Task: inverse folding
């Protein structure tokens, strides 16, 4: 976290306010990460208690989102930030939306985990889900790293990873489809698993978004909705 | 044509040349868009340009001619006098010259003059009128030629404005230089005569002698040999009177200024300030009168009533009145200086809980100190150079004393005494006045330069 | 908090006492200064106001042709030289009969001023037909009589200590009882030149002399002063040796004792250039040099008071330096310059010492006719009179001072009004 | 409050914005009492102002019925257009208005419960307790040391030289100037840069240990860098002093104050948490001023 | 659109810039609306061409998002907005993210529409889908209205409507589940329909978010993650 | 550019931020040439400045090797800390530096291809083409009408009274002042409020139909409301004039300019689109200044 101390303003108060915004962001990120981890754990371990805990913890993240939003708005109103400070605040405003949505997805997964706690087995799906979950967890943790260190190279890596998550998700849906066809009794479970996978995939999407914002923050260039190659070109080919 | 006539003609010519110069420029101009034209300068500048061509050379010649006319004509006239007159001493020669010139001016004298002088005077009249005619013709011709030359310069491309402005600037430089000329004039006149004085009286005698009695030099045929010209009593007398004056003026003036600028309400200020100004505007001759006829007798009586013997022209009387005279001077200088201290500084001090007098004593006065010192020095210079009060109220006798109740004399008194009445320009007595003038000038010069330097440095601080 | 408050409170009493004392010193200084002014003015006015009246004696004169030795048909030259003295003598003899002693006879004749015969002369010259008639004429009394009637000679003093002897007092009492003595406005004071006789002395020639002198001074010093100030303040290069020299010179000249200028005038104008002595021209030249620094300094201050933003504004529009100065700066500075000029002129009007040096100290009876005719000026007139021992001259000196002060105060008032009217705060 | 709230609701909604277009005068009638949080619970109030009116010579009223509390250890900023009376009000708080002839203050103005404008109240004492820093840095033409020592000497706050040294050093330290000037305490204070001069003036004020520091546009004569330093200093001083600051720049008010008072034509329109004033002002006039809608 | 002219700044340029931001926002909203409408139409009418068009038009919305983001950042940097202006800009920054995501959902629906164009019939689902689609369309159009008129009352209505959409979505999933159980051949189609319904439901969620932002804009109060009753209380009970 | 870019990349990344903490002087060595877009294609350049150096008396150099183009109809703002040379550079553009004794300008400075500092170039003519508005509103103490008519009269731009009337009216209109003063054209210009005075000064400048208007902190003496009006006016004037403005307030630069030049210690560090300067400055010094990191 100390890595994030970029502020050398004449105004210590300003430094402090920006620092606070960033540290709150990291706290929120940590909270979101633990929610996601717990949700995945609950899902894979069929731990309905954990799932319930996840589902009931979402409000903390929501509260943090509102608080951070207000904090950023206040800084903008009081400090008239420009250049990198402004980009930082706008990025935070954007990032927290995504973090909150990741929290929402975790909550959903948590709910499904409760619902599916009774399901005896997912068969192959368990592995696939675990794989996807691991992947998403790594991605999320990388994303938080990116946020903490504002590391553009890593951010690009995360953006790239999102494609893999998408592919894994596709493969899971195909497996699920097959599974449903095999035995209609599986349909309900499979649907639930699908939703979970979908949520995890969306977590990956959000991570990608966050990394794109970080690239904007550091580079001052908006790289959203651009493919990875042109991003690299943009950043290196100047 | 008389001098006045020439000047009037030139004025008319100037108006005329402005008019045609302006008109001509407009005629030559090619209009361009939006009401403008291709003239470099506004038309009036072309008018002024022609005026300059017409007037300046003519005026220069006129001035030169007029200033040289008299000496040249006179010497020419004198050279025509018979040799016997020319061989006379310079003094007598100049006397003769004056007589002839007076005759030339006054027909009644001319009628009764001796033939030799009459001839000379008539000769002079003749030459003078010829000279006047030539001068008139020359000046007018130059002026008219100037108009034509000026008109040839009226072209759209001529930088009329720049040229007019350059001429104007030269005129202004000339005016500013008069200050230097004045100083040079003072220094030269005083130095030159003093040099002659010190040729007769050694400088050391003058500067360190303690006895002053220039009157002895008046005795005929003894030019400058035996008079005593020891100026120390004068210097001491001057210092004594000045010191008394400053002792009165400085505290009163300074405190008045402080009270007026810091304490007084608008009402008091509205009355007290003009009163002070009136005090400052009263001519010194009035103070002198007051000192001589009112204060001196009063002091003497006062002294007598307590058993002191006071001279009727005591230094005290002159000093006190001079002090009164300097109060407003000191007060207005201090007022300026105190007002130059920014209000922000007062606010700062009040804002910290200082009382008014604390603010004045600890902030304003220290801040204004250099200015006040400057004011003091200027006041001292003024006191030393003051003439009329001491001429009228101080004595003539050069006593070497520092007792304020006795009569002393001052440098200025002696200058006036020596130079009024009948004078001979070569006598040591007359020249001594210039030597005194020189010392007065040097002392006040030093005081002034130092004071002005201090004041200027002070002003710069708050500008 | 409490420590500060208490510690401050502890000092307050002493501090306020000091404050009061300080304030008192200031007020006392002002009071004293103003007191001086009041005493001065009261003294002058007290001494001077009687001079505005003169004592007149009414004589019944017989303008008979025989005594006068002229007739109504005589030439003006003859009328001028007629024996008016005898007429006056006769008339006095009639009024106070029985004066025989030589000394008393002379005293009787001296009851009226020497001006009396000129009074008759003027009457007759105006109207020759008066010859042969009896006229009742108010003639000027002698200055001693005048002084007596103004209460400045104490009857109670021993006879030897006063200028009017007992027998004269008897005459005067008689004349007064006859209603033949009266105080009238002293118009002579304003319409005549100087005179050896106090009752005939006036300030007109000095006034006119002052007027010419100031005229010369103004005509020279104003344009030169303004031009010099403009150059120094607006055009002169900064940090230039010559300009600095000029500046030092001007500031110094402002403080050089005036008498030194007199020396300059004497040595340079009179001896070197041969300008006529005692003339307003040379006086004006000297005073010009004296007032120039005042005007230049005032004009520079006025110019400096015009904020630089005005100059920048004009320059920024494309006005040349000269245009900027003459069109924008000078008009704004003009009230200040005029104020300075008036104050300079007032100084010049009151200046005495340098004029003594250039011989404007002469005894001038005639009103000067031009700037080159010999003349004196008001302050010098005051100086001259103040030296005269007669009580009546003291009176007249004070009166002349009052006139001078009136002029000075009006000029200063004008300056103040000008300053107030056009004062501009930036 | 209800009235004010309604006003806010209607005008903040764009639909009714035809109303807002008329310029600021249109809302003048809506100034009836101060919106926001003008009062503290009372226990923490340093200044207690009720119904304060200020008149200048000729009965021109400059301040109308101002009510506010100023808390301990807070920075309260006063903003508003030129001539709104913010400076006038500030100068009431230590009776600097006394130095303006013809200026008259009415109403209840209390510092720690003592009436400020009471006859008994000594302005010298008051100003020792309520220091002031001015628009233009105005160090005295003395040495840096003597500038700071001026107040303590004046009020006899130091018993001896070493105590005085201590006061001077600690004041300079608090003003963040000590390190910059410690080697030249005897150099004249006027030789410092503008920002340093202003900090010197603050040090000078602190040296008397006032309870409150009033600042009248303390940075308007300074460049942005010096301004930032002073703002930073103000933030640090808040720990020990109550600070009231009048500022031209609403951004500055936003940066440094805890509460912001908006004055308009002599009225205190709104006094609220700075955050609220700048993100969600309650009165339309405040909103207009803050957002640059001046009519 | 004229309703939105709330700016009376001394600076016309500032007015103009804010106005431009708002009008661009409305343009983007309009674009998103037509994408959603088209996507639903394509889905219901099995119009694969239209579906493809929708899928390929998404980049326009993405471009607008980036542009608006930059525009708002520029205004904040250059104008130092405060109070309502600042809230407006932050709201826009937030809203466009949601609009862009709505666009994404529309794109997805468009893709599915292409895929499902061959499906002969959805049976009852058709109705249900149409119903959901209509509902979402109305909700979106209301949301844009809310944006245009900054109408808090209507915004609350939209927030309330979101619950209905959620319920409808639940009912559709139940139907689909039944349908899949009935005939495993339907599984693929049903899954697709599920995804579409899911997307539409998310559109509703985004609409709800947007309306919450508008409430924040107008009222200066953040009402996210609060239930509708407490929102009403917050707004009216002051 | 390459070097600069590398610099930016490394310093903008927080990882390397130990480098940024040292304060601004540390970057002074990185000023080598101007970053951003100092040059226009040339065709639209009104001013063409290459290698401009300014020395004050005593060879103190105030401006170092400044290169920039100033385009037609753009508002270019110059910002930077006090003493950075921005005003000095501005005053080169119409040779107002001539009025400072000892000031010497070298390098290539062209207005429409004509050398500004050429001996042949008449500064009076130049200043008619390049008008200037100053920090303190400085209307002449004449009537409003005469203030505006001053320039046209000076340069003989109006053939007769009605033409002059027309110029005066249109200038006042362009300066947005006509409606406020049309009933009192003969009233003195000094009687207007500060903001009106400054607009009068602008009208006065416009009346000569200059091609360029230089403004030296035109609003630093005005309150926020008057400032906003002037800023609005500047924006309108852009249609007809090239405007170069020096400003203390970077926010103002941000609001009104198309391009912004950042000066530092006499160097032109960065000249770029205003948007870029304020959202993504290219040089670390600019970034530090813009974000309030002053060292």
Result:
């Amino acid at each position: 976290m100390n890595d994030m101390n970029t502020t050398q303003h004449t105004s210590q108060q300003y430094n402090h306010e920006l620092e606070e915004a960033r540290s709150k962001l990291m706290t929120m990120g940590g909270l979101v990460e633990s929610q996601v981890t717990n949700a995945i754990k609950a899902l894979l371990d069929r731990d309905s208690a954990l799932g319930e805990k996840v589902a009931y913890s979402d409000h903390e993240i929501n509260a943090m989102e509102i608080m951070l939003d207000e904090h950023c708005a206040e800084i903008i109103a009081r400090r008239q930030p420009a250049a990198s400070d402004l980009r930082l605040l706008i990025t935070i405003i954007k990032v927290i939306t995504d973090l909150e949505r990741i929290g929402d997805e975790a909550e959903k997964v948590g709910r499904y985990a409760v619902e599916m706690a009774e399901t005896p087995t997912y068969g192959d799906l368990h592995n696939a889900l675990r794989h996807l979950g691991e992947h998403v967890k790594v991605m999320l943790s990388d994303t938080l790293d990116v946020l903490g260190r504002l590391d553009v190279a890593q951010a690009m890596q995360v953006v790239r990873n999102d494609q893999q998550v998408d592919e894994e998700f596709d493969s899971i849906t195909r497996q699920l489809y097959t599974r449903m066809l095999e035995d209609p009794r599986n349909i309900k479970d499979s649907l639930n698993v699908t939703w979970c996978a979908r949520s995890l995939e969306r977590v990956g999407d959000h991570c990608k978004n966050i990394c794109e914002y970080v690239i904007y923050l550091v580079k001052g260039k908006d790289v959203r909705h651009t493919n990875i190659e042109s991003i690299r070109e943009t950043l290196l080919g100047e | 044509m008389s001098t006045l006539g020439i000047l009037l003609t030139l004025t008319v010519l100037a108006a005329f040349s402005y008019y045609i110069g302006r008109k001509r420029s407009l005629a030559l101009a090619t209009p361009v868009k939006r009401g403008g034209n291709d003239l470099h300068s506004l038309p009036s500048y072309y008018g002024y340009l022609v005026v300059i061509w017409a007037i300046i050379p003519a005026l220069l010649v006129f001035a030169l001619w007029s200033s040289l006319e008299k000496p040249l004509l006179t010497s020419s006239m004198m050279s025509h006098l018979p040799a016997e007159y020319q061989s006379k001493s310079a003094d007598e020669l100049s006397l003769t010259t004056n007589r002839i010139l007076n005759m030339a001016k006054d027909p009644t004298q001319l009628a009764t003059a001796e033939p030799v002088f009459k001839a000379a005077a008539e000769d002079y009249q003749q030459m003078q009128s010829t000279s006047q005619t030539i001068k008139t013709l020359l000046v007018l011709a130059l002026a008219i030629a100037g108009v034509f030359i000026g008109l040839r310069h009226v072209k759209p491309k001529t930088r009329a404005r720049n040229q007019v402005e350059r001429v104007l600037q030269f005129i202004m430089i000339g005016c500013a230089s008069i200050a230097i000329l004045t100083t040079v004039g003072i220094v030269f006149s005083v130095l030159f005569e003093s040099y002659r004085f010190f040729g007769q009286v050694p400088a050391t005698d003058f500067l360190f002698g303690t006895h002053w009695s220039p009157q002895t030099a008046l005795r005929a045929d003894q030019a400058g040999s035996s008079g005593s010209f020891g100026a120390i009593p004068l210097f001491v007398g001057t210092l004594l009177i000045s010191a008394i004056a400053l002792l009165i003026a400085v505290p009163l003036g300074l405190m008045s200024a402080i009270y007026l600028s810091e304490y007084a309400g608008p009402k008091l200020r509205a009355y007290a300030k003009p009163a002070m100004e009136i005090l400052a505007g009263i001519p010194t001759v009035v103070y002198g009168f007051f000192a001589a006829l009112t204060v001196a007798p009063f002091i003497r009586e006062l002294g007598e009533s307590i058993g002191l013997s006071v001279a009727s022209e005591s230094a005290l009387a002159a000093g006190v009145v001079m002090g009164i005279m300097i109060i407003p001077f000191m007060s207005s200088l201090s007022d300026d200086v105190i007002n130059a201290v920014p209000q922000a500084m007062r606010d700062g001090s009040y804002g910290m809980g200082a009382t008014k007098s604390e603010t004045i004593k600890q902030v304003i006065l220290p801040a204004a100190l250099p200015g006040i010192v400057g004011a003091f020095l200027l006041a001292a210079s003024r006191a030393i150079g003051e003439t009329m009060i001491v001429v009228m109220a101080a004595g003539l006798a050069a006593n070497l004393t520092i007792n304020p109740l006795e009569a002393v004399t001052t440098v200025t008194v002696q200058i006036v005494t020596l130079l009024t009445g009948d004078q001979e320009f070569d006598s040591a007595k007359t020249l001594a006045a210039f030597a005194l003038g020189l010392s007065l000038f040097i002392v006040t010069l030093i005081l002034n330069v130092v004071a002005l330097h201090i004041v200027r440095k002070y002003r710069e601080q708050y500008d | 908090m409490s420590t500060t408050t208490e510690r401050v409170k502890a000092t307050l009493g002493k501090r306020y006492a000091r404050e009061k004392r300080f304030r008192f010193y200031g007020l006392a200084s002002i009071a004293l200064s103003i007191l001086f002014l009041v005493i001065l003015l009261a003294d002058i006015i007290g001494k001077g106001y009687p001079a505005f009246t003169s004592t007149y004696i009414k004589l019944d004169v017989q303008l008979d042709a025989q005594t006068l030795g002229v007739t109504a048909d005589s030439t003006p030259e003859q009328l001028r030289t007629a024996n008016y003295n005898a007429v006056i003598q006769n008339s006095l003899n009639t009024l106070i009969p029985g004066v025989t002693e030589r000394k008393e006879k002379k005293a009787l004749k001296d009851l009226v001023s020497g001006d009396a015969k000129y009074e008759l002369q003027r009457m007759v010259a105006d109207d020759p037909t008066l010859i042969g008639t009896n006229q009742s004429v108010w003639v000027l009394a002698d200055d001693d009589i005048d002084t007596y009637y103004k209460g400045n000679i104490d009857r109670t003093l021993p006879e030897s200590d006063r200028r009017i002897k007992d027998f004269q007092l008897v005459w005067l009492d008689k004349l007064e009882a006859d209603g033949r003595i009266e105080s009238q406005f002293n118009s002579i004071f304003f319409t005549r030149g100087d005179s050896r006789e106090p009752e005939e002395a006036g300030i007109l020639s000095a006034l006119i002399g002052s007027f010419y002198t100031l005229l010369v001074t103004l005509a020279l010093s104003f344009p030169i002063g303004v031009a010099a100030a403009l150059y120094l303040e607006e055009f002169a290069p900064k940090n230039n040796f010559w300009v600095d020299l000029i500046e030092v010179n001007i500031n110094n000249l402002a403080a050089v004792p005036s008498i030194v200028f007199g020396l300059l005038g004497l040595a340079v104008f009179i001896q070197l250039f041969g300008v006529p002595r005692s003339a307003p021209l040379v006086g004006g030249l000297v005073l010009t040099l004296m007032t120039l620094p005042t005007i230049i300094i005032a004009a520079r201050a006025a110019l400096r008071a015009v904020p630089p933003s005005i100059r920048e504004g004009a320059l920024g529009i494309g006005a040349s330096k000269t245009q900027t100065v003459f069109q924008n700066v000078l008009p704004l500075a003009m009230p200040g310059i005029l104020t300075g000029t008036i104050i300079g002129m007032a100084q010049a009007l009151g200046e005495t010492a340098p004029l003594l040096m250039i011989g404007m100290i002469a005894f001038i009876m005639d009103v000067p006719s031009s700037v080159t005719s010999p003349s004196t000026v008001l302050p010098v007139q005051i100086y001259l009179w103040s030296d005269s021992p007669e009580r009546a001259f003291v009176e007249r000196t004070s009166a002349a001072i009052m006139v001078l002060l009136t002029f000075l105060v009006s000029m200063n008032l004008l300056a103040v009004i000008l300053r107030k009217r056009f004062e501009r705060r930036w | 409050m209800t009235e004010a709230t309604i006003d806010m609701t209607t005008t903040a909604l764009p639909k009714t914005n035809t109303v807002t277009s008329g310029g600021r005068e249109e809302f003048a009638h809506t100034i009836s009492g101060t919106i926001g949080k003008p009062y503290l619970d009372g226990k923490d109030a340093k200044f207690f102002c009720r119904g304060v009116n200020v008149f200048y010579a000729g009965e021109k009223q400059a301040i109308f019925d101002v009510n506010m509390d100023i808390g301990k250890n807070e920075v309260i900023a006063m903003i508003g257009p030129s001539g709104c009376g913010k400076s006038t009000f500030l100068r009431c708080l230590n009776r600097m208005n006394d130095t303006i002839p013809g200026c008259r203050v009415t109403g209840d103005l209390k510092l720690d419960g003592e009436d400020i404008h009471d006859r008994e109240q000594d302005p010298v004492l008051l100003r020792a307790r309520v220091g002031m820093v001015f628009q233009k840095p105005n160090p005295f033409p003395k040495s840096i040391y003597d500038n700071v020592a001026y107040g303590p000497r004046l009020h006899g706050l130091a018993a001896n030289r070493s105590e005085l040294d201590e006061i001077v050093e600690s004041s300079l330290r608090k003003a963040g100037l000590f390190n910059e000037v410690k080697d030249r305490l005897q150099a004249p204070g006027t030789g410092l840069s503008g920002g340093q001069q202003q900090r010197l003036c603050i040090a000078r004020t602190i040296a008397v240990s006032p309870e409150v520091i009033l600042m009248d546009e303390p940075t308007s004569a300074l460049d942005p860098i010096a301004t930032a330093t002073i703002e930073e200093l103000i933030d640090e001083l808040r720990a020990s002093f109550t600070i009231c600051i009048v500022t031209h720049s609403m951004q500055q008010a936003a940066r440094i104050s805890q509460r912001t008072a908006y004055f308009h034509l002599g009225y205190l329109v709104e006094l609220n948490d700075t955050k609220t004033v700048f993100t969600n002002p309650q009165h339309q006039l405040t909103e207009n001023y803050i957002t640059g809608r001046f009519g």
